[in-house]
């Protein structure tokens, strides 16, 4: 992958030039302190090291500036005759040839190293971003699949226990209409379709609703929770007999629904 921004690894602003100036001054001070010991030997070594360090931390432009300024300082102060630029001898020529060549070589290697390092960081950031996008999409796919499976389970439940349904209640008022449409459009035959007698506040009544005692309906109307409920049903004639009922909760894309049905005896 080609990364065009790899050359922009160096920091921006005035701070890098301040660091370059400080490194140049430190190299000049160190070489001046060592001058009584070294004399004219290796006059540009300290400035070479300073230029390479500046290249590593501040970039190409400050490093080249340190190299050129160091060349002038080294030739003026540490190459005999000292303190003169109008006289050029073999020592000056050696410095003018060897110092820039070696410094440019080291600076180029460091620049390529820093660009490769920054390119690797950019690629790692892109890979991390793509990995997070894949995880997000995978989670969304799993959630959508789970919602679809839950919807299929709800429709299958309605078709299987249609004759024993008491009511279907939408827990979210915003999905009340969807709840009624869901019940009306369930994939069951006309012979086993839900007999919706009324629809109010997100509640769809099933076939067994008319056979349930009104007191039991009022008891579970506002406090219907998943689980088992004991309710009274009209038997032959006008007698009431208790029966076990089961309430189940379904989480679907339109919303959450509670289905209350009469438990069928095996």
UniProtKB/TrEMBL annotation:
Keywords: ATP-binding, Kinase, Membrane, Nucleotide-binding, Phosphoprotein, Transferase, Transmembrane, Transmembrane helix, Two-component regulatory system. Residues 17-120 form the Sensor protein KdpD transmembrane domain. The chain crosses the membrane at residues 48-79, 91-110. The lineage of its organism: Bacteria, Pseudomonadati, Pseudomonadota, Betaproteobacteria, Burkholderiales. Pfam families: DUF4118. This is Sensor protein KdpD transmembrane domain-containing protein. GO terms for molecular function: ATP binding; kinase activity. One of its GO terms (biological process) is phosphorelay signal transduction system. InterPro entries: KdpD_sf (IPR038318), KdpD_TM (IPR025201). It is a multi-pass membrane protein. It is found in: Membrane. Gene3D superfamilies: Backbone structure of the membrane domain of e. Coli histidine kinase receptor kdpd. It comes from the Bacteria. Its main location: membrane.
């Amino acid at each position: 992958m080609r990364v065009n921004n790899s050359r922009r690894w160096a920091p921006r602003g005035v701070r890098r030039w301040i660091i370059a100036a400080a490194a140049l001054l430190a190299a000049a001070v160190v070489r001046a302190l060592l001058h009584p010991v070294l004399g004219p030997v290796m006059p540009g070594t300290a400035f070479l090291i300073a230029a390479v360090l500046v290249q590593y931390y501040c970039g190409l432009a400050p490093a080249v500036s340190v190299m050129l300024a160091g060349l002038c300082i080294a030739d003026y102060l540490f190459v005999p005759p000292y303190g003169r630029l109008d006289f050029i001898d073999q020592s000056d020529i050696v410095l003018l040839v060897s110092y820039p060549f070696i410094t440019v070589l080291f600076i180029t290697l460091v620049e390529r190293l820093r660009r490769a390092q920054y390119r690797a960081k950019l690629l790692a950031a892109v890979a991390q971003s793509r990995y997070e996008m894949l995880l997000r999409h995978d989670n969304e796919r799993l959630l959508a699949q789970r919602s679809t499976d839950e919807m299929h389970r709800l429709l299958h439940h309605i078709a299987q226990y249609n004759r024993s349904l008491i009511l279907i209640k939408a827990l979210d008022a915003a999905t009340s209409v969807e709840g009624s449409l869901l019940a009306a459009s369930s994939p069951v035959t006309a012979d086993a379709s839900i007999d919706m007698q009324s629809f109010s506040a997100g509640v769809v009544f099933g076939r067994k609703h008319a056979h349930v005692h009104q007191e039991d309906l009022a008891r579970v109307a506002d406090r219907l929770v998943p689980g088992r409920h004991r309710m009274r049903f009209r038997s032959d004639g006008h007698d009431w007999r208790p029966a076990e009922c089961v309430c189940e909760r379904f989480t679907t894309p339109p919303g959450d629904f509670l289905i209350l049905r009469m438990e069928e005896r095996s």
